[in-house]
Every structure is written in C-alpha cells, then in structure tokens.
Amino acid sequence: MNDLTQTPEMLIATMGARARAAAARLSTASDAQKIDALRRAAQALRDQAPRIIAANARDMENAAANGLSPAMLDRLKLDEDRVLATAAGVDQVATLINPLGSVIDRQVRPNGMELSRVRVPLGVIGIIYESRPNVTADAAALCLRAGNAVILRGGSEAKESNRAIHAAMVEGIVAAGLPADAVQLVPTTDRAAVGALLKASEFIDLIVPRGGKSLVARVQEEARVPVLAHLDGINHSYVDGAADPDMAQKLVVNAKMRRTGICGSTETVLIDKAYAEAPAIVKALLDAQCEVRGDEAVQAMDSRVTAASDEDWDTEYLDAIVSVRIVDGLDEALAHIAAHASHHTDAIITEDAERAERFLNAVDSAIVMWNASTQFADGGEFGLGAEIGISTGRLHARGPVALEGLTTYKWLVRGTGQTRP
Fold this sequence. Notes:
- The chain is built from 14 helices and 16 strands.
- By secondary structure, it is of the alpha/beta class.
- The chain has two domains: about 240 residues, 3-Layer(aba) Sandwich (Aldehyde Dehydrogenase, Chain A, domain 1); about 140 residues, Aldehyde Dehydrogenase, Chain A, domain 2, CATH 3.40.309.10.
- A seven-stranded parallel sheet has the order 10-9-11-8-7-12-13, with helices on both faces.
- β4, α7 and β5 form a beta-alpha-beta unit.
- α10 runs parallel beside α11.
- The mean pLDDT is about 95.
C-alpha cells in the first residue's frame, strides 16, 4: 500500500522503485505466465462487473453534478456491455503474437561478427489519462504482455471506476504469480502527482498522455521523460466528385455520429463541388441531430446550417457538431487538410482509384483511409487488440499503439574472438 501522507514526489519515487523491481521480474517471466495473468484478469473483470458498474455510477453522478458534457459522460459511462467488452479486450491481448524476442533483422559483418536487433520491453511506462476508465484495463493488459511495468494516473472524474477496474486486474496478475506492482494506480487525484510523474526520469522510461489538449500540452511542456503524444483528432472525410452517393452518405454519417466523443470521429467534411449529392449529405447529418456549421455554399443547401468560423476548421468537437466545406477538387481538399489536420486520421470517399491513391500518398497523417469510416481508427479494429492510444507523432510508433509500440530493441553481437584493429 502507498502512504498518502507522502509528498507527491515521494509517492511517485516509491511507486517508481516498485515498478522498476516489477519490470525486472517481468523480464524473466514466460509469455505463458503473462497470458495466464491476462486470462485471470479478464475473468476477474467479468466476476466483478457489478462492483465496477456500481463504482462507475458514483463517478457518473459526480460528473453530471459537475457539468461534464454529454460527450464526456459517454466516455466515462460503463454498463454491463462495456465492462464485458473491456474484459474481451484483455482476453484479446492474450491471443496476440508476442513481439518480445523477435528478430527485427540480422547481418553478418565481413569480419564474421553476427549482429541482430531483438525486441525487448521498454521498462516502466507512465500513462496519464482522462475520462475513459476502460483505459485502466487496456493499458495494464498491453504493458504487461509487452513485459513492461506501468504506473497509471487516471482522471479524477473516473477515480472510483479506475480503482475498481485496477483491483480486478491486480487480482488476476497476482493469481498468476506475477507481482502486483507490475500495474500500479496513482492513489491520489492531486495534480502535483502528475508533475512528479513527468519528472521521474530515474524510474519512468516513457510517458503516454491520453486526454484533451490541455493535458497533452502540459505533459509535453513539463516532461523530463520521452513522451508518446496523442494530439487532437481533427479528422476529415473528403467526398470526391467520383464518390458513390449511397456509400458517401452512409460513411459520412457513421464517421461523425456513431460515437461523437471518440478521437476517430470525423470533425470536418470536405465535399468536391463536382459532387452533385452534397445537399443530401448535409440533410442526412442534420436529420441525425448533428449541428452543421458550413461555408456559404453549404449554408445555401439547408436553412438549419449555421455559419462556420475560421476557428471551426481547427476544432475537435467531440460532440454532435461538424464543419462542412465545399472544395474545388482534390488539390483544394489536400491543401485544407494540410493546413488544418492534426495528423490523426483522414479519409477519401471515391470510386476513382487514381485519386484515392494520390490522397493516400499525399496526406501526412498516422492513418489515411479510402472508402472507410474514420471511426475505424482503433487498435482493436486494426487487429492489434486494445490500444494505448493513437500516436500522431513521427518517432518510435505512429497510429494505434499496441504491443509492438510498447517495445524497443537491443543489438546482440555474437563474435568468435574478433578484435578491432
């Protein structure tokens, strides 16, 4: 147990030292033992679902009283289906191919030395997140399977849910003979603990922030530890002039409205002026109870459309709001995306393969799609199991970060007595 009378710096140092020791034990644990731990943790989540849902109900009540938006409440909410889906995600991580020990490449030098690069754990990972309590299980499962210890710091709005989920995960981990300290949850909601975690370079090898712009900005500003950043999801769906009307309407409505509060939701729809069915798309969005903010051409299509401001093109709404613009072909669409996208996920809807391939190659985002909803921007949908997040940077890992993204590599050199002249 952690002593809550400690200063935040002392608390994080204590947790960090325990995490280092746990990471050392994980490095010698077999993959079969880690799989067993995840199977047991998934079952504990199912067994403890009523307790987890009751804890979440307390969080939901407090969040509603504190005025959280409907989108944020949706992120926070747990019901039986979501708890079971979280358990299934942990089970799925247990089925994934183990990246540890895999040989990335091998070469033999002219002097006969054999060099190879082999995947190994990162060590200790700190994850700072908001709202979504399922991240507690997802992050724990992925870090454990990749051989890393993890220190989790969830948002205050989900503190009861996070504690209940963490308890279930630890139950499974300990039952499999692995250390409880492999997955630790910061027990205080004091913001100073976040600062201490960001500066704990002696203990933490990587920080992963999952949350809003202010959280990520703080992490990037204060961290003395490498950061795997997940920035805004200012995602675009571009309807090309050669798009199939039925497909275009279906994809745009799904990309925006399936779940508006997730980072893969489309926030801006661009429509080629050569596409004749633009009014039908606008109407479908409005009829789906989505607020549409458009340029002059879009406003002329339906009286319910309000004017888009310059700020709208750079906004991640995470709500039933979308900005829509008419563009003059692919070049203007690409220019808009280059100016306003957050390099998360962008999609083209078209039957023209040549334009699609140009879009796929030209858009500099972590995920670029052709004729698919941006809501598929998810590690589970990519077959990676649960994800830590979507990395919008260019170093180490990009797009959905799962097992492989939580590893690094080391060089192994095998010689036969070579000396350097």
